[in-house]
Amino acid sequence: MPTRRQFLSTLAAAAALTQSFPLSAATPSLKLKYLLASALFGDMPLHAILPEVGRTGCSGIDLWCKPHGTQREQAQELGIDQLIELLKQHSVNPVCLTQYPLGPFALEPEMKVLHQLGGELIVTGPRGPRNLTGEELKKAIRHFLKELQPHADKAAELGITIAIENHANSLLHHPDSLRYWAEFNQHPALGVAFAPHHLHEHVDQIPLLIRELGAANLPFIYFQEYGIGSQQKVAKKIELQQLPGQGTLDYAPILRTLREIEFHGWAEIFMHPTPRGVPILPTAEEISAVLNQSRTHLEAILKTINT
Q: How many Å apart are CA 96 and CA 220, to the nearest integer?
C-alpha cells in the first residue's frame, strides 16, 4: 500500500506531464498580493520606506529586523501607538513581521505585537537537525510539527499564520522535507514560506513541490532566485540577478502552478545584498524602480497564464 506522500508524488508527476495543456476555464485567474520587504531598504527610516509600498504595487509591508533590516527595531522605538499612526498616515497595511533570530518557538511576543497592528503573518526559519534524509528526515519533520503545535494554536487564537522558510542547510531544505510537511501538517495556522532560491539544486521540482504543498500550506512565497551576489560581493548588476527578470529562472511554470492550486497567499519580490543590512540600491526611488521592473516582468507572464 503506497503512503500518502508517495501517492501525492505520483499525482504530481502525472500532473507535470500535462502542464503544457491549457488550464481549465473554471480555474480562477491568479492575482498576486505583493508585500514590500523592508529589508531591501537596509537601515533606511520607516518614514522613507512606507511611501514606496503603494509605488511598488504592494498591498502591505513586511517589517524585518537586524541583521537584514532595522525597521522592526525602529517600530519598537516608536511604540505601538505611534507606529499605528505612522502606518495610517501612509495608508500602509502592516501584514507581516519577518523574525528569524527568535525562531519558531519564541514568537509569542511578536504575535501579540502583530495582532495589535492588525497583521496576519510571521515568517521565520525552522529549528531541528540539519541535512537529514529518509526515515530520519521524516521523523524529524513530524517531531518539528508536533513541537510547533502549541505555538500554532496561539497564532490561530490571534488570527495569525506562522510561515516557516525552507532554508538551505536546515531541517526544511531538501524537497522531501517539504513533501513530508505536506503529508503531516494539519494545522491551519502553519505553513511554508516558500523560497525557490533555496531549491536552486532542484529547480525542476519547484512546480511539483508547489502542487504537493497546495494553497493551504503556502501562505507566502518569495520571488527570488539563487545568485552568488547573496553570498559574496560582486558587481551590482550581478547581485540584482536574484530579482525576477534579471536572472535566468523561468517563472512561468511557477506562476502556472500557483494558479492551478488557487494560491491566495502573499508574494514578496526579494533579494539579499552583500553585506547584509545595506540597501540594495542607494535610494528608495531606485529600489522601487527595480522592484517595479520585476513586478512588470511577473505580471506579463501572469497575463499569458490567465488567458
A: 10
